[in-house]
Amino acid sequence: MKSDQKTLAGFVEELASKSPVPGGGGAAALVGALGVALGSMVCNLTVGKKKYAEHETRLHEILVEATSLQQALIAMIDEDAEHFLPLSRAYGLPQGTEAEKTKREQVLEQALKDACSVPARIVEVCRKAIDLHAAIVDRGSRLVISDVGCGVQFLKAALICGELNVTVNLAMIKDKVFVQRMRETVHRQVEEGKIVADRVYASVESALA
Amino acid sequence: MKSDQKTLAGFVEELASKSPVPGGGGAAALVGALGVALGSMVCNLTVGKKKYAEHETRLHEILVEATSLQQALIAMIDEDAEHFLPLSRAYGLPQGTEAEKTKREQVLEQALKDACSVPARIVEVCRKAIDLHAAIVDRGSRLVISDVGCGVQFLKAALICGELNVTVNLAMIKDKVFVQRMRETVHRQVEEGKIVADRVYASVESALA
């Protein structure tokens, strides 16, 4: 069954179980999706209100982009899990002869690189979603502005967990050029994202003070 | 339908919609439950392993407590939503005469106090769950230690959002004694929880370095 068709109770129980997937990566994708959704909710509760008419066009644009990011994150819950089996199989390959050892190393290297791809995209998508929240916090209805604050906290947590899951895989990859490039790309997005998220959250706190 | 029986896709879409519930409070309860679940997963993947035999008894105790906190958080998704309607009704009460105004103020005051109760409990439960993660990070299998890092980031985000949702309601409550007591209790737990969560996350990073 696709994860997005599982019940909340079922998914949380499966996460808590000793089943290796879903794990932190898939959960981060879901938390990111919940964060994006809160931003969309604020847009949906603002459009059509006379008081915010000047922001109407921009809010509709944001909603289109947010919906696309939300769907991408929901899909990543399963995409992240799909990389687990090849990685687990690669670890289990025989390493009796030199030829087997070389083969195993090659397969494992590729499986590890593949396993980085989804958490790296979680970082990329959450980074974009944090920018959307920065646009929403200046335009959304004051009545639900706290939801932008919650959304951005979830996105920040998902961003950090995305990087953590990239780091775990990078630690075992031998291709130093790949490792350095991936680490730098992801880390830059996380650092930028955290700064913007904290700024958005501070705006929400000011609006409520 | 109870929220825990909704599909992930359905819940996220409902969150993004202009329906006022679920909102940031309910989403925070879910994110907290996902955080607790990751800690339980690490316990479940550690118990029975010879290498960690010395921690077996404590890990089983942690699992019992974590399961109870996880269930409490899942239940709070709906409990938070249940306070919305009385609050919305209170705002809509007539305020034509002095007697009506007084009546409305009383009903509204109580509805606001009630609406604080679930986010305050989200804070309390996430605070406890962060302490469990502090116990897990020293005992859990190194192979899945990154999941403790993800768990604690989700709990920290849920903790902060719990406080934000308390703050929103407190801002409109007239009973200053109630406001001050609630604000102090919640804020202390959030500050303590953030410190412990950051410490747990730093331990995870050290273990992976």
Strand content of chain A: under 5%
What is the average per-residue confidence, as pLDDT of chain A, rounded to a whole number?
Answer: 97
Can you write the helix and strand succession of chain A as a string? Answer: HHHHHHH
- Tally of helical runs of chain A: 7
The CA-CA distance between the termini of chain A, in Å, is: 46 Å
Q: Per CATH, what is the topology of chain A?
A: Four Helix Bundle (Hemerythrin (Met), subunit A)
Q: Regions of chain A with pLDDT < 50 over 5+ consecutive residues?
A: none
Helix content of chain A: over 70%
Q: Any idea what the CATH architecture of chain A is?
A: Up-down Bundle
| Class derived from helix and strand content of chain A | mainly alpha
Largest sheet of chain A: none
CATH class of chain A: Mainly Alpha
Oligomer designation: homodimer
Overall structural domain count of chain A = 1
Number of strands of chain A: 0
Greatest interface by residues involved? A-B, 54 and 54 residues
**What's the shape of chain A?**
elongated
CATH superfamily of chain A: Formiminotetrahydrofolate cyclodeaminase monomer, up-and-down helical bundle
Compute the CA-based radius of gyration of chain A. Answer: 20 Å
